[in-house]
């Protein structure tokens, strides 16, 4: 039986289908750039990237982003979330004064 949960349906539309998975785990920057060209105009690029971020996938190129780029994205999102959480407290303190 071939079941595909709906949350993974995007994978069926990925431009990388049929490309060797090993290509997406390059050992150098040139390999990353080659794979990023495949991802560049993929119709599910954002879904792929969000999948890797949500699942904390540490290796390979996902959604056109290298391992380092995904770490930067996650760090920026954490910083933005921390800023947005602390902002209301600052406003509350200023309002009470």
Helix content: 40-55%
Structural class by SSE content: mainly alpha
The quaternary structure here is single chain
Unreliable residue stretches = none
Beta-strand segment tally: 0
Largest sheet: none
Q: Mean pLDDT, nearest integer?
A: 88
Order of helices and strands: HHH
Radius of gyration: 18 Å
Q: Into which percentage range does the β-strand content fall?
A: under 5%
Query: What distance lies between the first and last C-alpha atoms, to the nearest angstrom?
Result: 65 Å
- The total of helices stands at 3
Shape: globular
The total number of structural domains is: 1
Pick out its properties.
97 residues; single chain; 3 helices
Tell me what you see in this structure.
The protein has one domain. It is built from 3 helices and no strands. The protein has helices at 29-40, 45-54, 67-96. The longest helix has 30 residues, at 67-96. The mean pLDDT is 88.
Brief synopsis:
The protein is mainly α and 97 residues long. The chain has one domain. The protein is globular.
Strand-helix topology:
Elements: H1 29-40, H2 45-54, H3 67-96
């Amino acid at each position: 039986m071939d079941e595909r949960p709906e949350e993974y349906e995007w994978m069926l539309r990925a431009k990388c289908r049929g490309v060797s998975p090993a290509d997406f785990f390059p050992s150098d920057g040139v390999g990353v750039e080659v794979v990023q060209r495949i991802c560049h105009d993929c119709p599910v690029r954002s879904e792929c990237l969000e999948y890797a971020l949500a699942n904390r996938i540490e290796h390979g190129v996902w959604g056109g982003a290298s391992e380092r780029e995904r770490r930067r994205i996650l760090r920026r999102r954490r910083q933005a979330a921390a800023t947005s959480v602390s902002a209301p407290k600052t406003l509350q303190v200023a309002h009470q004064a």
